[in-house]
Amino acid sequence: MAPLEALDPPLNVVLHRPEIPPNTGNVARLCACTGSRLHLVGPLGFSIDDKHLKRAGLDYWDKVFVATYASLDEVIAAHPAAGVHLFSARAGRSLWEVSFAPGDLLVFGTESTGLPREILERWHERRVALPMRPGLRSLNLSSTVAAAVYEALRQNAGPGRTPPGVTGCT
């Protein structure tokens, strides 16, 4: 299979205060495989050197762009032209109703509480949820990120096309 070429500019996955090392490792692996960039907003609930984080990311860490920030505002300031999409179970808009563009920021909150209320209220119109059956709380963070990234890639490839560089499935 040919390597997946990144969008130009690539998608930007933002984890706001992640708590669980294996989730962040899985997201890093996803970013490596899709050419997406990973932005971590602290404080983090673990050390970047955590063995569980490294194990979940396998040997892909040298293949992913990773940057750390003190606040979400710093990430947004570093990407002024990017669209911002805040993923939350408390959103009125479905993933399927959103148009994604190359370079967009896909922002996800902590595993235990999601994005802080002040962030969700500040950018109310940018909240996005993954459709789920009623009465269920949420998906795992890394599953949610994967669904969102692949939907954004699908949209940017165009109707009936696969993203650049994809020749098959694994």
Keywords summarizing the entry:
single chain, Alpha/beta knot, 29% helix, globular, six-stranded parallel sheet, 170 residues, alpha/beta
CATH superfamily: SPOUT methyltransferase, trefoil knot domain
Domain count = 1
What best-fitting shape do the alpha-carbon axes yield?
A: globular
Q: How many separate helices?
A: 5
The major pleated sheet works out as: 6 strands, parallel
Strand content: 5-15%
The CATH class designation is Alpha Beta
Order of helices and strands: EHEHEHEEHEH
Mean pLDDT: 86
Query: What low-confidence regions span 5 or more consecutive residues with pLDDT below 50?
Result: none
Q: Biggest sheet: strands side by side, in what order?
A: 3-2-1-5-4-6
Helix content: 25-40%
Beta strands, count: 6
- State the end-to-end CA separation: 9 Å
Radius of gyration computed on alpha carbons: 15 Å
What's the CATH topology label? Answer: Alpha/beta knot
Structural class given helices, strands, pairing? alpha/beta
**CATH architecture type:** 3-Layer(aba) Sandwich
Describe what this molecule looks like in 3D.
The protein has 170 residues and is of the alpha/beta class. It has helices spanning 21-34, 51-56, 72-78, 117-122, 141-157; strands spanning 12-16, 37-41, 66-69, 84-87, 105-108, 127-128. Strands 3-2-1-5-4-6 form a six-stranded parallel beta sheet, with helices on both faces. Helix 2 (51-56) links the parallel strand 2 (37-41) and strand 3. The protein is globular and about 35 Å long. The mean pLDDT is 86.
